[in-house]
Specification:
By secondary structure, this protein is mainly β. It has 3 domains: about 25-105, Sandwich (Immunoglobulin-like); about 120-210, Immunoglobulins (Immunoglobulin-like, Sandwich); about 215-490, Neuraminidase, CATH 2.120.10.30. About 5% of the residues lie in helices and about 50% in strands. The chain contains 1 helix and 39 strands. The strands form 9 sheets. Strands 1, 2, 3, 4, 5 and 6 form a 6-stranded mixed beta sheet that branches. Strands 8, 10, 11, 13, 14 and 15 form a 6-stranded mixed beta sheet that branches. Strands 18-17-16-39 form a 4-stranded antiparallel beta sheet, with no helix packed on it. The longest helix is centred in the first third of the chain and has 18 residues, at about 1-20. It starts with a helix and ends with a strand.
Length: about 500
């Protein structure tokens, strides 16, 4: 009986021993791995590594690495733990004489973790002016939990409404380059600790330096609108009219420091003025708009002092003060032809007119006195379209462009427009030799400030290709160069 009891207890012990989870002692392996921050993948030191079934417990080194040697072969679940982080489990299959690799990506625990303080913008100061177009933005930010911080900066161009966001910045500064001149910018900083919601700063603004010596004016097409730009001799450009408005045919007057231009106002077109940086817009014409057969080919002119402007309204020529007062009719064509372009001489004694029929042809170019008396004829009786008109400083030369092919249609298309200069002393006309390419047109010709060159628009005669602004010396036909691409309606002062 005693032997039976002993046998029974031995069997029971063996039964319970077999019911426990066993590790295969047939072989051992190695487990290696690393623990990193899930957001920035920075190493996490002193993280505790344990397993189920239980093996050795180890801690990560300064670079987040760990090694567990002599791990019996089998299936495991390893755990990484570190205060301030959420624990993470990763499975591993340990086999004989092999090394298993594990990477733990721990998320920071948001329990008791506070968001960063509101960033403080330090430079430039709010509403700062005359800032360089390569401005440095700086700010400060703190976090009570000493969490690593990342920043984003939102920058808005007040002139164009274009907003740019710079993300994932690791330092509390941002170098801005290629800003626009004379432009107001708004900026805001957002800081994130990777745990809480980002925190935004207040919004500051700054204004860049005035545009340096913008001697050129021209127009570009943006969103189906004509938009005015100014540019300097270095080719730097500044948009000075809104992309949402149709503004064209800019004319600068240096004495008044103003730029005049044409813009739509409902169904009519009127003349406006603004400062050279695009500010202080003022409507000049009101009761009598500027009008003609085709507004793309209608022009007006300042007087030398910049206190008056002359402009056409179909067959009538008006004079008006730059402040919008003193509207006076000074001329009317005797044959009902429309006035398309007018240029006032520097001394104020003469006005050059280009007149045409209601579809732009049957062109006459002639000079009248300031009192409206016809003085002499420049061009008449030639078929084809004309474009551009100007008189030089001492009234010795008048330039214009015309289509020598004589082609005429309702679309007012040019096939071979060339530039000509009229000598007011000899009353003779000569083509400006400029080596224009066949199939292209030279249009909208005007004198340069030193009168030795002309500036104009060159484009293919297909009517749809890109327009480029070029210039050429009156004495050197090889000097033709492109000044601005994708631009038209030039002015150079």
């Amino acid at each position: 009986m005693r032997k039976l009891n002993i046998l029974f207890f031995l069997c029971m012990a063996l039964f319970f021993a077999c019911s426990e989870e066993q590790i295969d002692d047939a072989g051992k392996g190695i487990v290696k791995g690393r623990v990193v921050n899930k957001v920035g993948f920075e190493p996490i030191a002193n993280a505790k590594i344990s397993s189920s079934p239980v093996t050795s417990t180890v801690f990560t080194d300064s670079e987040g690495y760990f090694t567990i040697n002599d791990v019996p072969a089998g299936e495991y679940s390893f755990q990484a733990q570190k205060e301030g982080y959420l624990a993470k489990f990763e499975p591993a299959n340990v086999t004989l004489n092999s090394t298993s690799q594990i990477v733990f990506e721990l998320s920071v625990s948001s329990v008791n973790n506070k968001a960063p303080d509101v960033p403080v913008l330090t430079a430039p100061n709010d509403n700062a002016t005359n800032q360089s177009i390569t401005t440095k933005l700086t700010w400060t930010a703190t976090d009570i939990d000493k969490d690593p911080l990342t920043y984003s900066v939102t920058l808005k161009n007040a002139a164009t409404d274009v907003t740019t966001t710079y993300t994932d910045l690791k330092t509390a500064s941002l170098d801005l380059t290629n800003l626009s001149y004379n432009t107001k910018y708004f900026w805001q900083v957002s800081v994130s600790d990777g745990i809480n919601k980002p925190v935004n700063s207040v919004t500051f603004s700054f204004t860049t330096l005035p545009f340096p010596n913008g001697r050129y004016l021209f127009v570009k097409k943006i969103n189906s609108n004509n938009v005015i730009f100014t540019a300097n001799d270095n080719g730097e450009q500044l948009q000075i009219s809104s992309s949402s408005s149709n503004c064209y045919r800019p004319r600068r007057n240096n004495n008044s420091g103003k730029i005049a231009y044409i813009s739509s106002d409902g169904s009519q077109n009127h003349i406006y003025t603004m400062n050279t940086d695009g500010s202080s817009i003022k409507k000049v014409t009101n009761t009598v708009p500027i009008a003609g057969f085709n507004m793309e080919h209608v022009g007006y002119s300042w007087n030398a002092t910049g206190n008056q402007i002359i402009y056409p309204n179909f067959d009538k020529l008006y004079k008006i003060n730059a402040d919008g007062t003193g509207l006076t009719q000074i001329y009317q064509t005797p044959n009902g032809k429309f006035i398309s372009e007018c240029v006032w001489s520097n001394d104020g004694s003469s006005i050059v007119l280009k007149v045409n029929n209601n579809i732009g042809y049957d062109v006459d170019v002639y000079v009248i006195t300031s009192s409206g008396v016809v003085d002499y004829m420049v061009s008449t009786g030639l078929s084809g379209a004309y474009s551009g008109l100007d008189i030089n400083f001492n009234k010795s030369s008048i330039v214009f462009a015309r289509d020598v092919s004589g082609f005429q249609n309702l679309e007012y298309r040019f096939l071979d427009s060339r530039m000509f200069v009229f000598n007011t002393n000899t009353k003779t006309t000569q083509e400006i030799l400029s080596k224009k390419s066949s199939g292209f047109n030279d249009l909208d010709v005007r004198f340069s400030p030193n009168q030795a060159e002309v500036i104009f628009v060159n484009t293919s005669n297909d009517g749809i290709s890109t327009k480029n602004i070029q210039k050429v010396s009156l004495s050197d036909s090889d000097s033709r160069t492109t000044v601005f691409t994708g631009a038209y309606m030039p002015d150079w002062k």
